[in-house]
Description:
One of its GO terms (molecular function) is phosphoribosylaminoimidazolesuccinocarboxamide synthase activity. InterPro entries: SAICAR_synt/ADE2_N (IPR028923), SAICAR_synt_PurC (IPR033934), SAICAR_synth (IPR001636), SAICAR_synthetase (IPR050089), SAICAR_synthetase_CS (IPR018236). It is a single chain. The chain is α+β, with helices and mostly antiparallel strands. The chain contains five helices and 13 strands. The chain has two domains: 4-77, 2-Layer Sandwich (Phosphorylase Kinase, domain 1), CATH 3.30.200.20; 80-215, 2-Layer Sandwich (D-amino Acid Aminotransferase, Chain A, domain 1), CATH 3.30.470. The protein has helices spanning 41-58, 129-134, 139-162, 207-210, 216-228; strands at residues 4-5, 9-13, 18-23, 26-29, 34-37, 65-70, 73-77, 80-91, 107-117, 126-127, 165-176, 182-184, 193-197. Strand 2 (9-13) and strand 3 form a beta hairpin. The radius of gyration is 17 Å and the shape is globular.
Amino acid sequence: MEVYEGKAKKMIPLDEGKLIMEFKDDATAFNGEKKARFKGKGWLNAQISAHLFKLLEENGIKTHFIGVAGDNRLIVERLQMYPVEVVVRNIVAGSLKKRIPAEEGTELEEPIVELYYKNDALGDPMINYYHAKVLGISEEEIREMEKIALKVNEILKEYFKEKGILLVDFKLEFGKNANGEIVLGDEISPDTCRFWDAETKKSLDKDVFRFDKGDLIDAYEELYKRLTS
């Protein structure tokens, strides 16, 4: 049985075009230069991802999520994944500060969508439609991913607003299913999104680990409690 293992997850094959997505307690930052392990992180990311996938499915977004298979495991549809990360940004933070003349925390008038080539050896560089074509991805496919990503943004921004949380930015990955449909895959968790408390601007995501802002599990648990309360 072939098992794919990444920095934060394992993908374990099942029958009938399904996979088990197992979330690890490992945390990495800065392309793997910073590493640590936090007991309970895998459980929190699995449960938060399941909760948000259900929310998106209820609002018409097709995802690979099928069900929960244990504390830190989800059952998902097997997809042929695109080697592209689609990033949606609502507030200036992270690397965006190096690309536009705006201070961190500036709310954007409309979301910015960015594309990155998923390749650790190259440092996940930013790409455009021309690069994507070289990777075998058509402009039509990219535009469909961007359309879905912006719809996801609309749904999640409103949902998190009700929870007193700002959706700063987030990363999505997509794949094709057996029917040739473009489907949202991977995870949606504080590992792949930036969440700020709406009043204090306190981080409730992996930036807590990246920049030593406090206890990572405390931040993830607070996010989980707000989403499920």
